[in-house]
Design a protein that fits this description.
By secondary structure, this protein is an alpha+beta fold. Helix content is about 35%, strand content about 35%. It is built from 3 helices and 5 strands. The two termini are about 20 Å apart.
Length: about 130
Amino acid sequence: MQVTTHRGAGPLQQVIEIGPHQVLSDAPVESGGEGSGPAPHDLLAAALAACTTLTVNLYARRKGWKLDEVLVTVDHGQEGAAYGFQRSIRLLGDLGVEERERLLDIANKCPVHKTLSGQIAIRTELV
């Protein structure tokens, strides 16, 4: 899948094209943007939250477990020399202790979590 970005209407607004979808990103007003969309780091945190929810739901459904809802919150920001993510997961439904522990394990195996906690290679070319 290819993602493309280009300048939007505002001074720092970016239009992100992901296949047939468009998403806006912007800087907050205090940073010179208009706040017309989430900042890039917010999109990264949202990807982690969405992937976690999706992965846990798929696993529970496959197992036939009574998971009614997964609520994921991700706080994020610079922590010294590192960028940190604090993920909180709330599982709603008729689940036993072992099922809940297994779902936490599965959450840590979501593809975005694995990508962010693994080694990342970024290659850049000027075209």
